[in-house]
Amino acid sequence: MHCDYCATPFLHPNFIQRSPEDVIAEIVHLNTRMNVLEFAFYDDALFTNKKHHIIPILKSIIKHKIQATFHTPNGLFARDIDLNLAQLMKESGFKTIRLSLESIIPELQKASTNKVSTHHFECALDNLESAGFQRKDIETYLIMGLPGQKYPDIEITLRYVFELGALSRLAAYTSIPHTASWDMAKMAGSVWDEMDPLLTNNTLYPCATADFPVEKFTKLRQLSNQLNANVKSET
Ligand code: SF4
After folding, report:
1. Which of 8, 41, 99, 178 to mutate to test the pocket of ligand 1 (most atoms within 8 A of CB)?
2. Contacts of 196 (CB under 8 A, 6+ apart)
3. pTM, 2 dp
4. Which tens digit of pLDDT belongs to each residue from 31-43?
């Protein structure tokens, strides 16, 4: 993928997947020899080429009766989660599930390589729920602070996720050179080429503007916390 805000295509232009046999051998070794019980997959493209990659891995985890819990702390591609994959995730012991949505605004979805649409996102939630996961345990990454992004766009996306009964997780944008978003931020005067990278850190909200000041970012975090608390309190 080539998301406007991400430096991965610049840093790692080639997409490489380990063989399922290699991955499962490592999991079996760590689980049976080292007693590792918690595994995290830090790959948002974990389900890419799923027929030949994650599905054989999950079937093998089930076949080996591996007693462990699996976590996906990065935002998975929702469009790949059909009912079959959701059931395999449940059976193999997945617990932490985070999906990538970023925004429900079409221009922003386009900037995210159209890796997810609202339709795909809703289907993934339905499939995960049918497989036995609870919506209130599923977190959704939303991006906040991109150059040109508007406050109401983020608020309606937060409320959309809440209406679907899932949790939101706001990810503040960090400006990174060699990306389309960096060029946009540069044109807006928010960043410049010789800028100390520390000043681009997302905790400083480098793309805050007079119309979208830092206080409004804080307000969105508070709204996210409040909506998440409401979701969790529902029985
Ligand atoms: S899919 Fe993920 S890793 Fe790939 S470009 Fe987009 S944000 Fe970066």
Report:
1. 8
2. none
3. 0.93
4. 999 999 999 999 9
